[in-house]
Specification:
Elements: H1 16-65, H2 69-73, E1 79-81, E2 87-96, E3 99-107, H3 115-120, H4 123-128, E4 137-143, E5 149-156
Length: 166
């Protein structure tokens, strides 16, 4: 029979208490990792929605500024819903004789909207509808017609309360 010096049979391995403490520590570590990964995915998704809305708004504004002066006036109050579910609303102001301010606001509504419901909304009502976070963008341009763009102002809804300055 062999005798192990300094250890008796009762001291081998881990106790139940040590295993429970190790399990709790590992669970806390894994929960932290999972929540940070989930947060990263949500932030990426919000950034993608914002980029998509900005690209759509810029495209619509570019198309609007290529119109003749008289045709731009017809955009006032127009609405559209893109194939991927973004809703857009146009507003046109005559800022001074021969100079128009064309405003386009785009968002992904949190609820499903029909084109008829969207067309019936004023710009203020459209600005007030609940949108998917990070998807509301408003751009304004001053134009004298197809060849006379003066400037483009960017008014993007800042994500999570951070003010964006461009």
């Amino acid at each position: 029979m062999r005798i192990i010096a300094g250890r008796n049979g009762a001291e081998r391995g881990f106790t139940l208490l040590e295993l429970m403490i190790a399990s709790v520590v590992m669970a806390i570590i894994f929960m932290g990792l999972i929540s940070s990964i989930t947060g990263a995915f949500l932030a990426t998704d919000m950034a993608n929605r914002a980029c998509e809305a900005q690209a759509t708004t810029r495209r619509l504004l570019e198309e609007a500024t290529e119109l003749a002066y008289g045709d731009m006036l017809l955009l006032d109050g127009n609405s559209l819903i893109t194939a991927d579910g973004l809703a857009a609303k146009f507003q046109v102001f005559e800022t001074s004789p021969g100079l128009l301010s064309v405003e386009v606001e785009v968002c992904r509504p949190a609820m499903q909207l029909t084109l008829a419901e969207l067309a019936a909304m004023t710009m203020e009502q459209f600005s007030g509808i609940e949108a998917v976070q990070g998807s509301r963008v408003r751009f304004t341009t001053l134009s004298t017609g197809a060849m006379g763009r003066a400037q483009v102002a960017d008014q993007t809804e800042p994500p999570t309360g951070v003010e964006q300055v461009k």
